[in-house]
Amino acid sequence: MRHSTLHNRSVRRTLAIALAGSTALALGACNRSSSSDTAGSGGKAAVGVSLITKDSTNPFFVAMQKGAKADAAKNNVKLTVASGKQEGDDQGQITAIENSVARGDKGILITPMSTGVNAAIEKARKAGLFVIALDTPPDPASTVDITFATNNRNAGKLDGQWAAMQMDGKPAVIALLDLFNDKIVSVDYNRDQGFLEGMGIPVNDPKKNGDEAKTGKYTGGKGGDYTIVCNEAGQGAEDGGRSAMEKCLAKNPNINLVYTINEPTAVGADKALKAAGKTALIVSVDGGCAGVGSVKSGVIGATAQQYPLKMATLGMEAIAKIARGGEKPKTTPGLDFFDTGVALVTDKKVTGVDSITSDEGSKICWGN
Description:
Layout: H1 2-40, E1 47-53, H2 59-74, E2 77-83, H3 90-103, E3 107-110, H4 118-126, E4 130-134, E5 146-149, H5 152-167, E6 172-178, H6 186-199, E7 215-218, E8 224-233, H7 238-251, E9 257-260, H8 263-275, E10 281-286, H9 289-297, E11 302-305, H10 308-323, E12 338-339, E13 343-346, H11 358-364
Parallel strand pairs: 1-2, 1-3, 3-4, 4-5, 5-12, 6-8, 6-9, 9-10, 10-11
Antiparallel strand pairs: 7-8, 11-13
Helix pairs in contact: 1-10, 2-10, 5-6, 7-8, 9-11
């Protein structure tokens, strides 16, 4: 009976996510219809907007760029797409921000690299541009006008809660594969710290990775002993994930639980484990189409799915609306950003943690 109840709840959650996306698109369609009709009759010119992602190779940002281009045409937006050369390229994003201001754009959609781009964002806002963050809330949140993002803390907690149940009281020997070790990024510490909280491992500074006790008791699931072997930066890439995992295994070859900042990192970690003849439970975040495939194949045990196309759609509609005199969007009650939703994708369902299957996740990956 409990299994049936959880299954029904999962299905309802999936339908709710799809309905939320449909509602947002429907509302946006109303706004787009008004703007496009006016523009088509010569009443209003196209609005200049820049989308600035962290890079243009990560499937997450590729999907976001694709969605933004489609929404730009619908909203009569003249879109310029730019990015850093790779994760960590603050200067690449700063240059793109400065170019947007010089071009006379009305707004910027950005997945901020780190606090290193805050000053450039603030200059753009002083110049009159409306700036919306996507995916990565800046620190502090007030750096931008609003953020459309996953609740990354909750995403990490879902991973941790699921992992604690899977450990079933056994000692957890943990590797934490983060994004950076030299930059402060909210998505980085929120996912990492959320995972630990989900495991029932006390954290110290909630905005700092690696300062928690390295040994102790986890209280999630049946509870048990834990050892944190490492916090290594994988730069959000497969190669980085592999080298980070290799460093962790060199410290302790008995790692049996791996948290990863995203799915490319998880794939790299899996390759390092296989090369060393080891196995471990891997959890991650993104829920992209390839990542869901990795869940189905068993490479990743569970991943928290987010919806970049929805972020791009809502951001594009908001800037187009504001540029034409409309109201500014509001944050989700109780949060300092607009929550675009999250769902845990796994084919190993556990009691007490809502989830959807890889088959269900594949139907809505990236927010399709």
